[in-house]
Specification:
InterPro entries: Glyas_Bleomycin-R_OHBP_Dase, Glyas_Fos-R_dOase_dom. With 170 residues, this protein is an alpha+beta fold. It has helices at 25-36, 91-100, 154-165, and strands at residues 18-22, 39-40, 46-47, 56-63, 66-72, 83-87, 104-111, 116-122, 128-134.
């Protein structure tokens, strides 16, 4: 089955769509619009009428050609961080915008495979983001700067450290 042809033409969704559950979904939506130039689909903005507490049960933010769905975490739901990869035109600029809105740098902009730069940050809701962008230098690096013949470098070690420290930010 080719799943890409089974999507009704009228849908706003992609074949795969991420869903982020966070305390303060409205704050996360604002973060996504400011950091990634995301656009919330106001028609999809759905308060949880049953909870009657102002929380969102569903919202959608379009970032580039992708869709992230967002909802508020209920008090009895466990913390479940999202781990999301985003291709951006400028990793350093995006990282600065994220930090300016409360994110913590996990991995500074670093050379990566295939002529890409990588950076990572942890948002204020405990979600881990991978940024990929065309390499800032035009060297067109085609292999990892961290070869298997050397000690692990920061691209590797910062991820391991961040994963060990993931915790509920509330």
């Amino acid at each position: 089955m080719d799943t890409t042809t089974d999507i009704p033409a009228a849908t706003r969704h992609n074949t795969v769509n991420g869903f982020i559950i966070a305390k303060d979904a409205a704050g996360l939506i604002e973060f996504l619009t400011e950091v990634f130039d995301g656009r919330e689909d106001l028609e999809a903005h759905t308060p949880d009428w049953y909870a009657d507490d102002g929380t969102l049960i569903h919202a959608e933010v379009r970032i580039g050609n992708s869709l992230l769905m967002v909802a508020d975490r209920k008090p009895d739901w466990p913390f479940t961080p999202a781990m999301t990869q985003v291709y951006v035109s400028d990793a350093a600029q995006t990282l600065r915008r994220a930090v300016g809105r409360g994110a913590t740098v996990v991995t500074e902009v670093s050379p990566f495979y295939g002529g890409l730069d990588i950076a990572r940050f942890l948002d204020p809701w405990g979600n881990l983001w991978w940024l990929f962008a065309p390499a800032a230098d035009d060297a067109g690096e085609e292999s990892s700067p961290e070869s298997s013949d050397s000690e692990p470098g920061p691209v590797y070690t910062t991820l391991l450290d961040a994963m060990r420290r993931l915790h509920d930010p509330t």
